[in-house]
Amino acid sequence: MNIYQILDKTHPINASSKHKFIECFEEVSFPKNHLIIRSDKVEKDIFFIKKGIARTFSNFDDSEVTIAFGEEGDTIISLKSYILNQKGYENIELLEDCELYKISTASLQNLFATDIDIANWGRKFAEQELIKAEQRFISNQLGTATERYIELLKKHPTLIQRVSLGLIASYLGITQVSLSRIRANIT
Amino acid sequence: MNIYQILDKTHPINASSKHKFIECFEEVSFPKNHLIIRSDKVEKDIFFIKKGIARTFSNFDDSEVTIAFGEEGDTIISLKSYILNQKGYENIELLEDCELYKISTASLQNLFATDIDIANWGRKFAEQELIKAEQRFISNQLGTATERYIELLKKHPTLIQRVSLGLIASYLGITQVSLSRIRANIT
DNA sequence: AGAAAAACTTAACAAATGATAAAAAACGAA
DNA sequence: TTCGTTTTTTATCATTTGTTAAGTTTTTCT
């Protein structure tokens, strides 16, 4: 998915603003297993996935939560770095070799402050992420792990082939062993 | 909390834009138990709480999830109406007699399209809600209901006095009976 | 104040999930 | 391919949370 499609997906931008915007991006590649965002750092860049898949997760004590998976067109971002310029709670690792579009938060802030079309793009971007976050929250509060797993299968059927069971389980908020048991029961 | 404080809390706006912005608000009052946002409607307005407390919840089948409580300075909003102009999944009821500031989404869209300062205010607003949503999600995935209850007590000590146990339980994702048992165990 | 309604607690049993361990299957590198 | 590693399954037992029901306390209304 190229950068034009990625930006347009969020919000249309007029041609001259879009040109200015796209000039700030750089294409980069990283290998599988690369830890691209670290929770102990204020991250200076955000990324969009051209090709590949990533996992956002958070560590506390000895346990780990998978917050999200990102596929082509999705964003790799430390929210607390991007929004508050603070150390985040997210780590993001690449689950495959990835091709990414990179832009610095400094460039973004500058574009937001000077171009109303891009400012509204930034607003739409946050709003769409917010909708996703709330839907995710509601579906995790409702129903059993079995229901959530079946819903995930329906919504992201390809994900199960690309990602290990343990990570899916951590995304669903259960242990890998529980998920294996659930799979045995629904077939 | 007045409308100046509420708007500034999110993002500073220059004086003339702020004046234009505030002119679009209207003060309204509603009694306790009023259902101000309904999930079966596209809502045309959003509200900020001057005085009082509200609860956002979602119904599916026969169960109900409390998504959030809103106190003074917080927003009463159907995200899907505001962002996508679609019917939402949220109901919002007032838990006390409330004084509110009201603005139409149409006015907001108009302000966003024409004033870069207000567009960036809208961006910051969505971003801050996003941070809250993600923190909430992470803390609900981690640890036991007991830990989440203790965390809530620390973060919002006044809430427990203003809101019934059943609603707190539904916020924590457990039943009222379970929460009562938890309270009996931690004292 | 007194009656009715709502909120909260307690208890017993059921269901879902966690923890641990061991075995089987799938995957990857030499 | 083959050996070693990782992933997945299966099983057992412990813990947490849900369900139902009954009883107590608190709040609300007249």
From TrEMBL, chains A, B:
Domain Cyclic nucleotide-binding: start-end pairs: 13-112
Organism field: Winogradskyella marincola
Pfam families: cNMP_binding
SUPFAM superfamilies: cAMP-binding domain-like
Protein name, UniProt field: Crp/Fnr family transcriptional regulator
PROSITE patterns per the UniProt record, alphabetical: CNMP_BINDING_3
